[in-house]
Inverse folding.
C-alpha cells in the first residue's frame, strides 16, 4: 500500500566511511493533473481531503493562489483565521512527530496517549472560527467565537508545557545557550528532554552537519519564474534555487532565535540544532496564535495586507509544518489549465540536498552506529512520506 | 505531499490498540492510538502506520474516486 509514495534512502560505504548516498522518491507527482479542467471551488473542496496531514496549509496555499488569479482580495479576519488553523496544524504535526517518532530513535515505544491529546484541537478550532462553514471556500465567512478560540490555544499550551517541556514553554524559550539546554535536558523527564540528553551524551551534536544552504525568502515572482519554466516538472520533483539545493524546515524559520543561532554557530546544522529548532518553534506557537486574535475582530472590509491582484495565474505560499509549501494555478477561462504543488520534502530530500549531504558526511565507524545516526538525521528533517533506509 | 489514504477497518485487537485495515485487496496493520471509538466496518484515514481520523463511507468513496482518477489506484476499492 504505497499509493502515497515513499523515499528510498541508501547509504553506501567504503572502508567504513560513507561514500555515496542515493535518495529516490516515488511520491505521485501526477496527482495535481486531476485538477485540470475543474473549477476553483471543486479544487478547493478536494485538496484538504487528499492531504489530510497538512490539509490546512494546502488549503491556505490553494485559496491564496485562486484569490490572486481571480482578483478577489481576502479580508483580515479570514486571513488570520486560516493562519491560526495552519499554526494549530503545525503544533499538532510537531507534537505527533515528537511523541510518535522520537521515542523510536531511543529504542522506546511511541507515546501515543500524549500524541492523542492534541487530536481534538484542530477540528475544535475550525469550529470556533468558521462554525460549520468551509474555511477554504472562496465565499468563506469567519464567525469567530473568540472565547472558544482562546480556549483551544490554552489547551494547546497546556499540552505543550506538560508533555514536552515539563515547564512553561514561555520560560523554556528563555534558554539561549548549549549549557542551558543541557541543564533542562538533564532535569526534565519528557521524551523531548531524553532525546536531547541522548544526543549530548553521545557527543552527536554536530552529526549530520553539512554546508547546505537555507532557502531564502523567495518573492512570488521568482518562484513563479521557476514554476513556469520549460523544466518546471523537474523543478517540482527536484527543486534548486540559483543552481543550489536548499533546505526549508523549522530550522530555516528558527535560525534567528538566540538558542538556535548559538547552536548553529557551534554545531552547524547537525542533529542538536535541528531537534532544538523544532522545540523552539513549538514553544512559541501558542503565543504566536494569541497575537493573531485581535485580527479576527477587525472589520471584515479590511483588505489583507498581502492581497495581490493579477490575472491568468496565481501563486500561494505558506509555511507548513515541514517547510515552505507553494501552489501555483493557471486558469483557462473558468477552469484550471495547470496546477502545481511544490512541497518542502522535495527541497529537503533532493538527491543532492541537505539530507543527502548530511548522510554522506556521517563519521566513519560501526555501521550500526551509522544507521542510528542516519535514522536521527532523517527523522530530524522529517519527510512527509514514509521512507526505507538502507545502510550498506 | 502527505497523502492520507482511506481504508476500511476489518479487525481490531483491543489489547494492543491495533487494527487491520483494507484498501482493496491489500491489508495492513495500523495503530488506533490517535482515534477513539473505532469499530470494525468504520473507515479511517491512515498515514505512516496510524489512523488519523474516522471518516464516513461516503467520504472514503469520494477520496478513493479521486485517487482512481489520478491513476494511483485501479478502481474504487473498499
Amino acid at each position: 500500500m504505497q499509493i502515497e509514495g515513499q523515499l528510498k534512502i541508501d547509504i553506501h560505504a567504503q572502508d567504513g566511511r560513507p561514500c555515496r548516498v542515493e535518495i529516490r522518491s516515488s511520491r505521485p507527482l501526477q496527482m495535481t493533473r486531476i485538477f485540470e479542467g475543474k473549477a476553483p471551488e471543486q479544487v478547493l473542496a478536494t485538496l484538504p481531503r487528499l492531504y489530510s496531514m497538512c490539509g490546512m496549509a494546502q488549503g491556505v496555499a490553494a485559496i491564496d493562489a485562486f484569490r490572486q488569479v481571480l482578483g478577489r482580495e481576502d479580508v483580515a479576519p479570514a486571513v488570520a483565521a486560516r493562519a491560526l488553523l495552519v499554526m494549530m496544524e503545525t503544533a499538532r504535526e510537531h507534537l505527533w512527530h515528537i511523541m510518535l517518532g522520537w521515542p523510536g530513535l531511543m529504542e522506546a515505544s511511541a507515546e501515543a496517549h500524549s500524541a492523542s491529546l492534541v487530536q481534538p484541537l484542530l477540528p475544535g478550532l475550525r469550529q470556533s472560527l468558521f462554525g460549520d462553514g468551509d474555511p477554504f471556500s472562496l465565499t468563506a465567512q469567519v464567525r469567530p467565537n473568540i472565547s472558544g478560540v482562546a480556549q483551544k490555544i490554552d489547551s494547546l499550551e497546556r499540552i505543550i508545557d506538560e508533555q514536552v517541556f515539563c515547564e512553561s514553554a514561555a520560560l523554556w524559550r528563555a534558554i539561549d545557550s548549549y549549557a542551558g539546554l543541557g541543564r533542562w535536558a538533564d532535569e526534565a523527564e519528557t521524551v523531548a528532554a531524553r532525546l536531547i540528553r541522548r544526543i549530548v551524551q553521545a557527543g552527536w551534536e554536530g552529526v549530520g552537519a553539512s554546508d547546505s544552504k537555507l532557502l531564502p525568502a523567495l518573492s512570488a515572482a521568482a518562484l513563479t519564474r521557476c514554476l513556469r519554466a520549460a523544466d518546471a516538472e523537474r523543478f517540482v520533483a527536484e527543486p534548486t534555487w540559483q543552481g543550489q539545493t536548499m533546505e526549508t524546515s523549522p530550522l530555516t524559520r528558527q535560525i534567528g532565535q538566540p538558542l538556535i543561532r548559538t547552536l548553529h554557530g557551534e554545531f552547524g546544522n547537525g542533529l542538536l540544532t535541528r531537534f532544538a529548532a523544532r522545540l523552539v518553534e513549538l514553544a512559541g506557537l501558542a503565543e504566536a496564535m494569541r497575537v493573531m486574535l485581535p485580527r479576527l475582530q477587525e472589520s471584515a472590509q479590511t483588505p489583507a495586507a498581502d492581497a495581490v491582484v493579477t490575472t491568468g495565474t496565481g501563486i500561494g505560499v505558506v509555511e507548513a509544518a515541514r517547510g515552505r509549501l507553494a501552489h501555483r494555478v493557471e486558469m483557462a477561462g473558468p477552469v484550471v489549465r495547470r496546477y502545481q504543488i511544490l512541497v518542502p520534502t522535495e527541497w529537503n530530500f533532493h538527491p543532492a540536498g541537505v539530507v543527502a549531504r548530511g548522510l554522506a558526511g556521517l563519521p566513519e565507524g560501526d555501521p550500526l552506529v551509522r544507521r542510528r545516526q542516519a535514522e536521527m538525521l532523517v527523522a530530524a528533517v522529517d519527510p512527509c512520506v514514509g521512507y526505507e533506509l538502507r545502510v550498506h | 505531499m502527505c497523502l492520507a489514504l482511506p481504508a476500511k477497518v476489518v479487525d481490531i485487537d483491543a489489547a494492543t490498540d491495533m487494527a487491520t485495515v483494507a484498501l482493496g485487496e491489500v491489508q495492513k496493520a495500523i495503530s488506533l492510538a490517535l482515534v477513539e471509538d473505532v469499530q470494525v466496518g468504520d473507515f479511517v484515514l491512515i498515514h505512516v502506520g496510524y489512523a488519523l481520523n474516522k471518516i464516513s463511507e461516503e467520504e472514503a468513496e469520494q477520496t478513493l474516486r479521486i485517487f482512481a482518477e489520478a491513476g494511483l489506484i485501479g478502481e474504487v476499492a473498499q
